[in-house]
Amino acid sequence: MTAQTHVLDNPVWAAATGAHRHLVEVHGQAARYHPDVTPLAALRCDPDERGWADLTAIAASGGVVGLAGVTATPPPHWEIVDTVPGVQLAGTSLRASTDPEAVRLSPADVPEMLHLAARTGIGLFGARAIELGTHLGIRRDGRLVAMAGERVRPPGWTEISAVCTDAAYRGQGLATRLIRAVAAGIHARGETVYLHAAANNTAAIRLYEAIGFTPRRTTTFRLVRIPDQA
To answer: What contacts 24+ positions apart, CB below 8 Å, involve 102-105?
Structure first.
């Protein structure tokens, strides 16, 4: 019997056959998003050796994938590139609201989105990340200075991610406004909001808790390199 009983315990796997099935490749016990969308991948709860082999079969040799909600340790011949302790938070008390300054971003905005993500240190943000769901941004003098969007969508839930603000515009509450605005669209679908944060990002966690998020569980994010398939 698996200890994982909630869709948020392994959200990428839960999303693989749901709202994002057109963006995810599933093979046996493994699933992964198209790498241009996000490098996130998943294994079925309590995978055996076959699960790691299945992930190898659908990912490029030497490529790096991100695993979240996967408690199993990779086999010895897999390289763990990075390990980040994290916190998963559910927005059960978040007050969602639209924002007149928030604009819906389109594929034409992708170059600016990638640039903003890069200069603010947002990881796991691909060129096709906008296909995951609604992304909203705020512009100042025509320049994109803040954004937030949807990411993994297990049944009944949608993750808010890519929350970032240009350094010159921080401290103005733009991130909170965008989180509430993205959440308004999620709530309109009858879904609940959740998100993830690095455990050492205490400032962000305090902000999320102050606006209505509740820590649900700790988790571990791993970047792992796919072994060569000789």
So the answer is: 102/136, 102/137, 102/138, 102/177, 102/178, 102/181, 103/136, 103/137, 103/138, 103/139, 104/134, 104/135, 104/136, 105/130, 105/135, 105/136, 105/137, 105/144, 105/147, 105/149
CA 158 to chain centre: 9
Q: pTM for this one?
A: 0.93
Other beta carbons within 10 angstroms of residue 171's beta carbon come to 9
What integer pLDDT is reported at residue 135 of this predicted model? 98
- Length of the chain (residues): 230
Reported as a pLDDT band with limits 50, 70 and 90, residue 230 is low
